[in-house]
Amino acid sequence: MGRSYHSKKKQKTPDRFEIEIESLDQNGRGVGHREGKAVFVEGALPRERVIYERVRNKASFEDGWIVRLLREGPLRLKPRCPHFGLEPGCCGGCAMQHLDPAAQVAMKQRVLIDALWHIGKLRPELILPPIYGPYWGYRHRARLSVRDVAKKGGVLVGFHERSSSFVAQMHCCPILPRHVSEMIDPLRGLVESLKIRQRLPQIEVAVDGRGRTALVFRHLVPVEKDDLDKLLAFGREHGADIWLQPAGPDSAAPVDPALRDALRLTLPEFGVEIPFRPTDFTQVNHDLNRVMVSRAVRMLGLEPGMHAVDFFCGLGNFTLPLARRCARVTGLEGSDALVARARAGATANGLSDKTDFVARNLFTWSQKDWDELWERSSGIDRVLLDPPREGAQAVAQVLAAAERRPGRVVYVSCNPATLARDCAILMHQGGWRLAAAGIMNMFPHTGHVESIALLLPGPKPVQGEGEKKAEKEGASPAAC
């Protein structure tokens, strides 16, 4: 196979070397060794022999780009998307369409296990089977950039180019739902026809669990009637609700106010439908989200009389299903607006009498907060954590030190590094056990790793014992 690739940063006399690829790193780059240094080669896969162009040279490692494939490995596939690649101008939305999907999942599982060990000196008692979802058409939320570039023939609508702020010249996208992928070229034509085309930087797309679609047009100047009529006509033709966003995400609103809560996040196993807006945070992969919620609820081992607490609850993606399985759930979230929306969702699902939502900064959660919540709830049986990438360090520290502890904690994470840090705090400082952990392939063809872990309370270590053990093994919980 003689396909060539080129680095964006051209050198006058590029340094090129031949290397055998041994493994993959967490970003899907091939890893080999040359002259005692690790070499990370973008576009290369295990058991391949390649020629790479060096783009960064450090004392202990090198970064490079594949420029010639000398021997193709068994994991390489032909990318489905015509816009995928490493050449200048290729779309940067995916990183691993050339890698067998099963190998992508295995790589992500290894990323999780490595993070738990290297960051937290933790080994799960059980490695959970990975959760799979659809590989194509899974991305139900996306932010498409818009640029009017005369040198490229006019308006571009799509994701950014690989390692660039430029917008890729796209005509389709197989990770988007088919009807959205087929809308890309018509959207280009629509924007071309608008007076505000040079003041329209992005289009947010959201598709709900039933296929209803919303398009949010971010505009930097007021939308005149002629342009608005064209937007609405496009929506009617393509079956999409039209939203306008003149400022930040909170300013987004549908042209027809009756459609403000038309989108629904559906969780059929629990009889739950959660209204959401296209600029809200929701999981982009509806099918996998349903399986993830189901697994989390089962792992918590709920019984009818229990009280559960959902930290970082958002709109109630976990809170409302939990309320179907136990006596009461408290949802905690940092945003007053989200808490109000979560309450409305509970009411719409007939769960307002089983739920309680509280606005609270969870990054400053304290022992006092925990004790007050415990007293108000007459005890806490189960805890679910679903934090953003920053993790839940403050909550982990409180749970590690608390005298009164729940029977189980399930931690859903979008960042293996902060998951490992927080689990290390619970285990080394609080005596918790990491009973199980595994990954969920929420974002196929990317390096994003979504994971889930089960923690069970164990005997607390003698003061300083957990830290000494971790330090002996090479971890430092205080720094995690």
TrEMBL record:
It comes from the Bacteria. Its EC number is 2.1.1.190. Residues 465-474 have a biased composition (Basic and acidic residues). Residues 460-480 are annotated as: Disordered. It catalyses: uridine(1939) in 23S rRNA + S-adenosyl-L-methionine = 5-methyluridine(1939) in 23S rRNA + S-adenosyl-L-homocysteine + H(+). GO terms for molecular function: methyltransferase activity. S-adenosyl-L-methionine binds at residues 283, 312, 317, 333, 361, 386. It holds the Pfam family tRNA_U5-meth_tr. It is an enzyme of class 2 (transferase). The keyword Iron applies. InterPro entries: 23S_rRNA_MeTrfase_RlmD, MeTrfase_TrmA_AS, MeTrfase_TrmA_CS, NA-bd_OB-fold, SAM-dependent_MTases_sf, TRAM_dom, U5_MeTrfase_fam. Catalyzes the formation of 5-methyl-uridine at position 1939 (m5U1939) in 23S rRNA. Belongs to the class I-like SAM-binding methyltransferase superfamily. RNA M5U methyltransferase family. RlmD subfamily. This is 23S rRNA (uracil(1939)-C(5))-methyltransferase RlmD. It comes from Mesosutterella porci.
